[in-house]
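Researcher: I'm preparing a figure for a lab meeting and need a structural model of a single chain. I don't have an experimental structure, so a prediction will have to do for now. The sequence is pasted below. Please return the structure as tokens so I can convert it later.
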Amino acid sequence: MNGADFGGLAAGLVELIHNWPTLIMMAVGALLIYLAIAREYEPVLLLPIGIGCIIGNLPLSAMVDPAEQGMLAVLKKATIDNELLPLLIFIGVGAMMDFRPLLAQPLFALMGAAGQFGIFGTLALAVLLGFPMNEAASIGIIGAIDGPTSVYVANQLAPHMLGVISVVAYSYMSLVPIIQPPIMRLMTTREERMTRMDYAPRPVSRRALIMFPVLVMIAVGILVPKAAPLIAALMLGNLLRESEVVPRLVHAAENEIINVATLFLGLIIGSTMTASSFLTWNTLKILVLGLLAFGLDTAAGLLFGKLLYALSGKRINPLIGAAGISAFPMAGRLVQRVAQEEDFSNFVLMHAMGANTAGQLGSVIAGGVLLTLVLPLIH
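Model: Understood. Here is the structure written out token by token.
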């Protein structure tokens, strides 16, 4: 081996020494892998994000170099820059959603709206902290507690922040069972949490289940055009499910399509987590603001739940409001768990799932509203 060969082999080590912050990012990637495997925090996404982060920070890595036509660079251009992967994921999410609880109790749609308060509250605070409007809106969308929507919005408004926004959004999604219960217990009394709700809703016809995704797609597409791609993908998946005539497509949407899309999304997002974009004071601010957005969403939902509790003569459990965020179906199941801590025979899951599916729709509409308001300001 001559000196030139040795120099070529050592080039990576030399680059690593000169650009030592990449070592910190590799450690961050390793931490995400640990959380995914050892703690099982959103492993389906945090594991590929962690691997992508390490790959993206390898010295002289060709995989993320557009000039070298690297795999992750090509995938990013083909599937993230044109919003393809978030939309594919939403087809899978739609195929897993059951809107029967929401259609049987439309009142809970209001809880889905209340659960988006953190988005706009955090946006206002981010602007006060000096973030430009496009970045503030991208930070605010973390409050959707909806990974694909966060990726979709951030990639259009602040693509340079895509890695940070996505990691924070998905990390807080995985921490729903840790973050929400203390807020739920703090803001409700034991008597409120023990409120029983009879589940004897009016039946929902098959015709209504088929018409609902079509009508929602049309209504949202007309009123909030920027949300049309997301809502169309979500409703397409749901229509496949409710049509009951394409079981193979439903199976593919729920499994192969969403799994492959999530794998590539995680790898690409992780590869954008470079030291120059991640190791900044703004990242710390985003972490805090994202947590605040999550807390505001939960608190607003609970306050609205308490209002309905009072107006209904104590017949609506205010915990249902905490399910108005978009973390489907985790938030709905968590409400059931907290309610059962006080009374094991208390069953509020179906009510909570009604609010949870409303929250999913609310987050998509909120993302479209942000794009509608902010995109003209930056173009």
